[in-house]
Amino acid sequence: MTTKKVIMFDLDGTLSDPKDGILRSVDYALNQMGIQQEGEELLSFIGPPLQDSFKDHFSFTENEVHTAIKLLPRTLSSAWGMKTRFIQTWSLCLTR
């Protein structure tokens, strides 16, 4: 039997700053649904589940939440690659 050592990280917020990617994706979904918001006003979307944020901040129905969430993958995957900033000191975590 082989033993493997594995290290797992919660990437969002631990090694990377997902702020720009998440804000741009949520902004895109809202714009597609006819809602205009400033990016900084959406900061509360970072952290909690996006479904909860759409309900809490915009009183979305379940159908509206579903629509907004369906709009996210298209933008979130492209925004993630281009807009995620990796935390500069992450390598210190790996060497300790």
From TrEMBL:
A Pfam family annotated for this UniProt entry: HAD_2
SUPFAM superfamilies reported in the protein's UniProt record: HAD-like
Top-level lineage group: Bacteria
UniProt protein name: Phosphoglycolate phosphatase-like HAD superfamily hydrolase
Native source species: Shouchella xiaoxiensis
